[in-house]
Design a protein that fits this description.
Two copies of one chain form a homodimer. By secondary structure, chain A is an alpha+beta fold. The first copy, chain A, has ten helices and twelve strands. The longest helix of chain A is centred in the N-terminal third of the chain and has 19 residues, at about 90-105. The first copy, chain A, starts with a strand and ends in a 5-residue tail after the last helix. Chains A and B meet through strand 2, strand 4, strand 7, helix 7 and helix 8 of A and strand 2, strand 4, strand 7, helix 7 and helix 8 of B.
Chain lengths: ~350, ~350
């Protein structure tokens, strides 16, 4: 199929129907759809409906439970561990974030580690749930091992993203959401489709040598931690990815490091798991547990305005406040629809046919 | 003077005497000395006694208060804001970390934002205070603006380091401690002494163009966020530095961004402060607020052992677990003494003469 533009409403309705078809209770299907579509709206196309058929296949392989009993298995005033019961991460993550927010209302902050979950879409969506409560939100997750730490030829960590959402007053919120690698996997997928080389510093070959082939991961290559090489601080990117892995999985009892199960049904999970499913970690901090929220938000306005007005190398290229491009995409795509790649469209048609849904 | 090796005991006693001479109460002088010397022991020479004369000059300029009344000005069950009363960061930070640990004992986690403080030495020292309590420790601080965010020619953030310390069982703890720039300022100082060029990607000229001159900062140049350039993710390094700045200063009421006062007495603080002093942020998370500490620590052992055994590109170059090099340095230097650079030694002699202390 050719690339097409589909309205947010139609795409939302379609994904919602699919989640119902695989057996999600209505409320959970709605939560999952909102989380999934948020990626498409925010321009992170690799994490939106492009993944829908993959979720369906994992459900068919009985690796995703569409009727999970998500529950707290351990807690303290400001913490909880949540068992996701092998549910969709798109459902488990918002539930865990709600618990973090509820804890923060009483204890000032709330921190929730999650085990036994699956791919949760974009981290930023979950972190941003804190914003309407005048809280700072954080979300992180581990992921299947595709990343070789500095000096390693083995893939031992995932792209392990971190999101931090911070409210402002009249300025839009600060929303950072990034993989702890030089480039996210989604950027390689774009290069694969365009048949273009990747920059040096994004990927390495199976033997650890330099590669610019965006398909290198299929030949046993690996993504590289943020920093690109030791001289430019890739050990710091490794620290970040490790931190996310440990908070998400060692704290919760999920699988960590090379034991994280793959997100695709054609690759079997490791035969010797060290925990349950994949892990996430969420945080919510009530601003007024530190200082009056109005004071804080006025200073955030000042922070954002000052940085936004920075003198730049090139007048055309302004300093980008984290979250700006995604927010602009969201505003645009809600109005004008969501561009869907031809291959993704084929994939969605196939899912529609499988479940006898109009698309 | 030539470079020399001085015993840890002698160097400790010397620094302690200096802190007493500038008026620190005995207990605070002892806390400051331990924090300062920890940097020398752990091989982070730029943050140890090399800074002692700078602290003295800031005290002479009345920008450091040697008898601070450090107090909590706002709190919730899991949070506090601490006013450092313009004290040495070396004294204020351990006090704030103690408060975070005390909060974590009751609420599961403790998070302390600090305003009105000064340079706090190495972040890792404070984060590691959590380890004997079976807690995860975190420490971050903002710093004088030397970093140009992606696309900016203006210096708008500091090197804003993050430290995370995580206990294990039989393995040594995981201790990450890194500036959120490609390279820390200390690394430039080493190149300056050796009269060597810096790699491309560490620094930029005043106009934002590429530089390899390690003295570029003196001519209005800037350090670069982790990632080196946009294509290799420097916007992610910027997100990290921004996050540290906001948690440390906007949450606490300290100065942020370009308003952070310089660490040297010959540069005046900005005339239009937006807060008080510099800011820090600390966290302590009780492991057993998530899962039994023994379970967690056994899995950390497994995590560390598996990564340490990674197949590497070169058999001589093993994967480095965060904290390994610093711990090895500490063990070695406690035994064999601390190498002190000739220029630093001259500086310390001058301080000794000023206060009529034997050195």
């Amino acid at each position: 199929m050719n690339d097409s533009i589909i309205s947010h409403k139609d795409l939302h309705e379609f994904a919602f129907q699919i989640f119902l078809k695989i057996g999600c209770p209505k409320e959970q299907a709605s939560i999952a759809t909102t989380a999934l579509l948020r990626a498409d709206l925010r321009g992170i196309d690799s994490h939106g409906v492009a993944r829908l058929s993959g979720y369906v296949r994992l459900w068919e392989a009985k690796r995703i439970n569409s009727k999970p009993d998500i529950k707290i298995v351990h807690e303290s005033p400001s913490t909880a561990v949540v068992d996701g019961d092998a549910g969709l991460g798109l459902v488990v993550a918002p539930r865990a974030m709600e618990i973090a927010i509820a804890k923060a209302k009483i204890a000032g902050t709330g921190w929730v580690a999650v085990k036994n979950s699956n791919h949760f879409g974009i981290a930023g969506h979950h972190a941003m749930m804190a914003l309407p409560h005048d809280m700072i939100g954080m979300a992180m997750t581990n992921a299947s091992p595709l990343v070789a730490p500095t000096f390693s030829v083995e893939r031992l960590l995932g792209t392990n993203p971190i999101a931090v959402a911070i409210p402002a007053d009249t300025q839009p919120p600060f929303v950072a959401d990034f993989a702890t690698t030089t480039a996210a996997n989604g950027k390689l997928e774009i290069l694969q489709r365009k048949e273009q080389d990747a920059p040096v510093g994004w990927i390495q070959k199976k033997d650890g040598s330099v590669s610019t082939n965006p398909n290198e991961l299929k030949d046993g290559g690996a993504l590289i931690p943020l920093g690109s090489d030791r001289e430019h601080g890739s050990h710091k990117g490794f620290c970040l990815g490790a931190w996310v892995d440990i908070f998400s999985a060692v704290l919760s009892g999920a699988n960590y490091g090379p034991w994280v199960p793959p997100f695709v049904s054609f690759l079997a999970p490791p035969a010797d798991p060290v925990g349950e499913g994949i892990g996430h970690f969420f945080g919510a901090m009530r601003i007024d547990a530190f200082r009056p929220a109005d004071d804080f938000k006025k200073h955030m306005d000042n922070w954002i305005a000052r940085l936004r007005s920075a003198k730049t190398v090139d007048d055309e290229e302004k300093l980008i406040i984290p979250g700006d491009p995604e927010r602009e995409s969201e505003e645009e795509r809600i109005k004008s629809g969501i561009p869907i790649n031809g291959k993704v469209l084929d994939d969605l048609k196939e899912v529609a046919t499988k479940f006898s849904i109009q698309f």
